[in-house]
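Batch manifest, entry 17 of 40.
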Amino acid sequence: MTSRSLNIFKDNSLILKWTMVLVAGFCFLWSFQLFIAGNAYYSVKNDIEGWQLSPDKASINRIDRGLGKIGNAIDYFPDNALYYQIQGQLFEWKAVVEKRSEESGDAELGLKSHSDNLNNAAESYEKSLLLRPTWSGSWIGLASVKLLRDELDDEFYRYLKNAKQAGPQDAIVHKFIVEFGLEMFSARSIHYVKIKEQLKQHLNLGLQNPLSRDFVLKAIQKHNASETVCRWLRDASYPVRKRISNCITYD
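Output type: structure tokens
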């Protein structure tokens, strides 16, 4: 091998070596970002699931921390539909908690903040659906924003329809329809007529799904609807009926 060939060989080896170093560094950085983003998502997800069962545990400070975490995850992975959907839920919770706690002494400012947070929530859900149109959680999110705005119009029911088509077995669909349906039943609202068949279906499915079961049982208890739900689900399976308080007797 000539001196010139040897130098070319050494140069190529050096280039290959540094290429491998750069690739390894990139892979390490990507893995680190994935780890941070994943931890942020599951931390926020666990908080939200806890607030759903015990809403009083939600606070502005905890929600703002969650928004910071999921904001960092989105900075790392801006094309992740799930992160935008979780961000939307956080903005919803912030709107609810601010309205509940009336932290602002200025009523007009408080209403503006409530509206801004709902607008932010809707924007996050829309970004999620642009990335993944068949994501049931984001369709439910848009329906939830409409509900918080007292806008139970055709668009609200279209969002529900899209959510059911995208994820007919998803826990988030069961939870929303059960809570909304029982609320409309308790209020003797005209909207109960529109939702009653879906309510019965998702009470059954929600009690079957371990990811929604505790939430559905708590919703039934909150609305003192055990006897009514037992009657609605008289044709449901024994494992479903036995979970409803006093629905199965052995007299």
